[in-house]
Specification:
Blueprint: H1 2-27, H2 30-34, H3 40-49, E1 54-66, E2 79-95, E3 98-111, E4 120-135, E5 138-154, E6 164-182, E7 186-199, E8 206-219, E9 223-236, E10 241-242, E11 248-249, E12 255-271, E13 274-288, E14 297-309, E15 313-330, E16 339-354, E17 359-372, E18 379-391
Antiparallel strand pairs: 1-2, 1-18, 2-3, 3-4, 4-5, 5-6, 6-7, 7-8, 8-9, 9-12, 10-11, 12-13, 13-14, 14-15, 15-16, 16-17, 17-18
C-alpha cells in the first residue's frame, strides 16, 4: 500500500512538471500571442500564464467505506469514514534560463466509529524544484521533498514475520537530475537521489542512496517508449541481520542493495467522443541483504494505466500486479519446504463529472489484495468513496 501511494505521489510530481513546461512554452513567446486577435477569455488565460508566477489550489471532500481497516487476514474490521484533501501549486515558468515549481498536498481520513488501534490516517507532502537550462537541449534540476504519513502499513515484504501496524513516518529526499535532448526524438535523464526515513512506532529507520537513469524515445503524444535502470543501497539504523535459518544475529547491521529496471510504453489518441491515453509498465526489482541472503527476493511487476476524458466526464483506471519470490525463506515444514512467495494486486477506478470550470463530482473504488503461500501474510481490502472537488 505504501509503495503504491508513493508511486502515485511521484506520478503527480511528474504531471506537475509537464504543466510547468507547457506554461514556460507559452510565456516564452509573448510577441506571437499579441499579434493574433483572440477571444477575451483565452487572452486573459494566456496573459495569466505569461506572468512571473502562477498558482492554483484544489480542495476535495468525500465520504466512504473501507472493509478491512487493519489489513487483517482473519477478522477484518469495516468502518465508514470522511476524507478531506488539499493540493496547492506555485510555479514560475522558464525565464532567464531558470524555472521553479513547488506544491504541497494533504490527505486526512477519519473513521466515524474508529477502532481502538487507529482513528484514521493522514498524509502530507511538500515538493520544491529548481531548474536551470543554459541551452535548449540541456536542463539541470535539483528537487527536494518531505513527507509525513500516519497510517496502517504492511511491512511484511522486508520482514521475517507478519508485521502490520498503525505507524507514523517522517521522510525526505533530495534529487539531482539532468535532462539531455538527443537527436532522433531521444532524451536521457540520469539522476542521483538521497533519502531519509524515520518511523515512530517501528524500528525501521534507514538511509538510502539511489542512482540511475532513464532513456526515452518519443514521437509526439502518439507514442513514447522508455527504459530505466536504478541501483540503490539502504542502510538500517537498528535492524540486525538474520541467519539463513531465520535466527537474529546480534551485533550485526542490516543493509540492502536494490537493483531495479523497467520498460514503459505510453500512447494517446483523439476520438470524436474524447481523448484516450494508455500506459503499460513492466519492471523487476532484485533485493539483496549482503549477508546470509535471508531477505533476498526478486520482484516482478506489471502496471496498466488507462484514461479517457470527454467534455464533461473523466474515467481513469490504474491497476498493478506484483509477484515476490524469496530465495532462501521457506514456508511450512518438511524435508523440502517451498520458498516463500507473495502476489500483490491493486486497482483504482475513478469517475469524475465536471459541473463547471470550478466544481467536479467524483466516485472512486480502490481494491487491493496480498496473497501468500503462508496464510497469515495474506489479506484483502476494498475502499469506496464519493465526493466533490473545488478548484481555485
Amino acid at each position: 500500500m505504501r509503495r503504491f501511494l508513493v508511486f502515485l505521489f511521484l506520478l503527480f510530481a511528474s504531471s506537475v512538471s509537464e504543466l510547468a513546461a507547457a506554461a514556460a512554452s507559452l510565456s516564452a513567446q509573448p510577441a506571437q500571442v499579441t499579434d493574433v486577435t483572440l477571444p477575451p477569455e483565452l487572452q486573459a488565460e494566456l496573459n495569466s500564464l505569461a506572468t512571473r508566477w502562477h498558482s492554483s489550489a484544489t480542495l476535495r471532500a468525500s465520504v466512504g467505506w473501507r472493509d478491512n481497516v487493519l489489513l487483517s487476514p482473519f477478522v477484518p474490521i469495516e468502518r465508514a469514514f470522511g476524507r478531506a484533501e488539499v493540493e496547492a501549486m506555485l510555479l514560475r515558468p522558464m525565464q532567464g534560463h531558470w524555472e521553479f515549481l513547488s506544491f504541497v498536498s494533504g490527505d486526512v481520513l477519519r473513521y466515524f466509529s474508529p477502532p481502538a488501534e487507529t482513528a484514521g490516517e493522514q498524509q502530507w507532502a511538500v515538493h520544491a524544484e529548481g531548474r536551470w537550462q543554459p541551452i535548449e537541449p540541456l536542463r539541470f534540476s535539483l528537487k527536494g521533498a518531505g513527507y509525513f504519513r500516519d497510517m496502517v502499513v504492511d511491512f511484511s515484504e522486508t520482514e521475517a514475520r507478519r508485521e502490520v501496524a498503525p505507524t507514523r513516518v517522517f521522510g525526505g529526499y533530495a534529487t539531482a537530475a539532468t535532462r539531455a535532448l538527443l537527436p532522433g526524438g531521444f532524451r536521457f535523464e540520469p539522476s542521483l537521489q538521497v533519502r531519509r526515513t524515520d518511523y515512530r512506532e517501528y524500528s525501521g529507520d534507514y538511509d538510502e542512496v539511489r542512482t540511475g537513469g532513464r532513456l526515452e524515445w518519443q514521437r509526439g503524444i502518439a507514442l513514447a517508449i522508455s527504459v530505466a535502470g536504478f541501483d540503490g543501497r539502504r542502510d538500517y539504523d537498528q535492524r540486525p541481520n538474520y541467519s539463513a535459518s531465520g535466527r537474529v544475529l546480534p551485533g550485526t547491521h542490516l543493509q540492502f542493495s536494490l537493483r531495479e529496471g523497467e520498460v514503459r510504453v505510453r500512447t494517446g489518441w483523439m476520438r470524436p467522443g474524447g481523448e484516450w491515453n494508455l500506459a503499460a509498465t513492466v519492471g523487476r526489482v532484485e533485493n539483496r541483504d549482503e549477508a546470509s541472503g535471508y531477505f533476498d527476493y526478486d520482484q516482478e511487476r506489471v502496471r496498466l494505466e488507462l484514461g479517457w476524458e470527454g467534455v464533461l466526464w473523466r474515467v481513469a483506471l490504474d491497476a498493478e500486479a506484483k509477484r515476490i519470490e524469496y530465495r532462501i525463506q521457506t514456508v511450512g515444514s518438511g524435508i523440502t519446504p517451498p520458498p516463500r512467495r507473495a502476489d500483490d494486486s491493486a486497482a483504482t477506478l475513478r469517475v469524475e463529472r465536471l459541473l463547471n470550470a470550478r466544481w467536479t463530482l467524483f466516485v472512486e473504488n480502490h481494491w487491493e489484495r496480498s496473497r501468500s503461500n503462508e496464510r497469515e501474510f495474506s489479506y484483502r481490502m476494498n475502499t469506496v468513496l464519493a465526493g466533490a472537488q473545488r478548484e481555485f
